[in-house]
User: Fold this.
Amino acid sequence: MAELVDALDSGSSRGNSVDVRLILAAMTTTIAIIANGEIRNPIILKKLLSSYSKIIAADGGANNCRILDIEPDIIVGDLDSITPDTSQFFIHVPRKQYPCDKDHTDLELALKEAEGADKIALFCATGSRVDHSLTNLYILSQYPQRLMIVTEEETVFAVDRSVIVETLPGKTISLIPIGGSVKGVFTKGLKWELDNATLNNHFVSISNVSLGEQVTIELASGILLCCLHR
Assistant:
């Protein structure tokens, strides 16, 4: 997984020196939430999951844990999607069950269980249900720079301030506004740089390419989804 460095400027103007860099990959509390979405390559996913200190299964995500041969630390949700066989297989695993009629999705309840973690990654959070996939992408905007969706091919996270993304030359990066226009976007380290750009439903930065090992993203207002392909 790529490292994300959060640049906290000492002032409000662009170009100030960085006082603090918070490297999320170096944090000690890392939690993975496994949802009930698609698995395309279990070998890759299991390898990516090996670096997390705690694993939460969001309801039917327990089925995916069984496919991945990973035991979750807890199962959270209304438990209407977990199969009887999987429920019995993980009978010894603690679970927190909620009513089926509830105001939050199972994934949101799992996020509440992960409160206090420095880094949270959502696995199996996309798939054939477009409504579920879009909802999970919008949830990223509630936790900028802290929450990410991880798939076999990419990492997606929300950005609402200046960040430095650690990557490799030639990697594909897309910047997509979510929840409205994003103004004052500057980038450094991309093949096609953005210079005080406005990203909206008419203009997005799709399939850009990193030139080196770092990409700087700055913005004045709004929230971007950063899609970083491995």
